[in-house]
């Protein structure tokens, strides 16, 4: 009644009128035609139906069926109402791999669950501590961003029978029916609906903020994994195994000199903050640590503590598995950013090279798997090269029990950024173990004797830790530890002098210092 003049501005005006004026005023207005009577409506309807029947008869008679279908489709397409809304679809899978934006959207929705939601999904796998509460299918959630209203919806499409088959559904044959017809797999996706005109701001500003939030949440709850890097040559399929790093070691539980511990934590913090710095000086954003010291002094525990602190995955590279430059390259390229590449016991796992220089290939004429000959500094150059083009926030750690046996080229300033000696237990270290294992946080009468003994013998944290696990009775355990230390002193001629083999406890490579002064 109001739209018939086809004048949109007038339409707007009359709509306003409609809201502002009383119904009887509208009826009395000279701009509006009089209300139709029932008989006039009836005759209009009769005329319209006769015209439609006439039109259909002519249409069917003069146009062949194919052309008719084409015309109807074209008319339908033309008259299809244009929506002012845009719907973005985030599918769960992007081909074979997961869709990062779907994960981000799903996690984001979980943070917005409010008391009005009617249905929720609850999940938990055996290893997880807490149940996860997720948004349920078909639920809608309203959000707003800079005044733009957005509607999120989680959709799950049940498996559907593909065209061409009949009969009953049979989902117990892996989605395939015994008669031969098949089902489409279940699909999950999340929809985001908003006004079309905000497309750019939603895609370029809102969605990246959702992804950032997801990344933040992931980092908070990330379970650190340890990956076993194996060569592709090692066998089909199983080139990379990973398990959750369940190592409980943290900097709090690590028995080591407090100053040294602080120096390592500060170094890691500085490394994380320096993205722009590394870019500016044109260096790969990576840090190298050489951990050395006798067995059982906590080198592997320190690696786990670093990984737990940074929430970085660990990649364990066994050099004896590497056969050629190309297989090493494949392995390194499979490691992800924000990770620690660990090469343990470097003195045992390789044959040291002659020191004439770095060969053009890391591997010189390898004859057997167990005999890879290459230089460690050549290996480091190789990894640096790969990381400088496609690696960010990488840490590489070498461990050895015999630093003196290493190629001096590797020990040169600037090769590894920090050399860390993990040495025998000190009394400060013992206090950390006593707090962890015995829950003794202050002084205990037997501590003076233990301090005296520890100061004059070489005992590893591993040995003491073992003693502290022998019983549930704290007093009996401390007594047992004193006896163990006395026994060790009797059979231990060496004093602590010279234990460190002439190295400073934390020896930062001078070139690294120069770099950080730039
Ligand atoms: N510094 C330490 N602080 C706390 N616990 C330690 C420490 N060093 C050793 N331990 C205990 O001893 C066990 C063995 O230590 P770890 O494997 O870290 O030694 P390692 O230096 O890597 O030895 P290896 O040279 O034989 O590889 C650890 O699981 C831990 O229980
Ligand atoms: Mg170890």
UniProtKB/TrEMBL annotation:
Top-rank taxon, per record: Eukaryota
Name by which UniProt lists this protein: Uncharacterized protein
């Amino acid at each position: 009644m109001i739209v018939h003049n086809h004048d949109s501005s007038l339409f707007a005006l009359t709509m306003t009128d409609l809201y502002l004026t009383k119904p009887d005023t509208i009826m009395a207005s000279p701009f509006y035609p009089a209300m139709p009577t029932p008989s006039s409506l009836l005759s209009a309807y009769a005329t319209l139906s006769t015209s439609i029947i006439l039109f259909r008869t002519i249409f069917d008679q003069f146009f062949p069926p194919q052309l008719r279908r084409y015309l109807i489709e074209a008319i339908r397409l033309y008259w299809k109402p244009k929506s002012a809304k845009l719907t973005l679809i985030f599918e769960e899978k992007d081909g074979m791999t997961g869709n990062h934006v779907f994960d981000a959207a799903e996690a984001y929705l979980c943070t917005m669950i409010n008391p009005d939601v009617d249905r929720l999904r609850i999940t938990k796998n055996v290893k997880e501590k807490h149940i996860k509460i997720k948004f349920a299918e078909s639920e809608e959630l309203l959000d707003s961003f800079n005044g733009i209203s957005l509607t999120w919806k989680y959709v799950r499409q049940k498996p559907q029978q593909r065209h061409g088959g009949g009969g009953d559904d049979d989902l117990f044959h892996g989605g395939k029916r015994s008669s031969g017809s098949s089902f489409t797999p279940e699909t999950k996706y999340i929809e985001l609906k908003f006004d079309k005109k905000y497309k750019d701001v939603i895609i370029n500003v809102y969605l990246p903020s959702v992804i950032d939030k997801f990344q933040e949440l992931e980092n908070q709850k990330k379970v650190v994994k340890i990956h076993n890097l194996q060569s592709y040559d090692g066998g089909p399929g199983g080139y990379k195994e990973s398990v959750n790093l369940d190592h409980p070691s943290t900097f709090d539980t690590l028995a080591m000199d407090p100053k040294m511990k602080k120096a390592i934590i500060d170094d890691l913090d500085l490394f994380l903050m320096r993205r722009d710095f590394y870019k500016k000086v044109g260096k790969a954003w990576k840090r190298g640590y050489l951990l050395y010291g006798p067995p059982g002094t906590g080198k592997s525990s320190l690696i786990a503590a670093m990984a737990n602190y940074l929430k970085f995955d660990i990649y364990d590279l066994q050099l004896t598995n590497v056969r050629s430059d190309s297989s090493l390259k494949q392995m390194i390229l499979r490691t992800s950013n924000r990770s620690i590449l660990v090469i343990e016991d470097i003195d045992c796992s390789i044959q040291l090279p002659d020191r004439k220089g770095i060969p053009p290939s890391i591997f010189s004429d390898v004859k057997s798997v167990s005999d890879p000959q290459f230089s460690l500094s050549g290996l480091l150059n190789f990894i640096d090269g790969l990381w400088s083009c496609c690696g960010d926030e990488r840490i590489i750690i070498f461990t050895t029990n015999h630093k003196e046996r290493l190629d001096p080229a590797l020990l040169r300033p600037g090769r590894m950024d920090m050399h860390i000696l993990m040495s025998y237990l000190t009394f400060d270290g013992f206090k950390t173990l006593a707090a962890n294992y015995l829950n003794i946080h202050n002084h205990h009468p037997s501590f003076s004797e233990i301090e005296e003994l520890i100061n004059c013998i070489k005992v590893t944290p591993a040995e003491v830790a073992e003693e502290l696990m022998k019983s549930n009775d704290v007093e009996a355990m401390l007594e047992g530890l004193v006896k163990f230390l006395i026994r060790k002193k009797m059979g231990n001629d060496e004093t602590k002098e010279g234990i460190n083999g002439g190295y400073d406890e934390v020896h930062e490579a001078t070139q690294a210092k120069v770099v950080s002064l730039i």
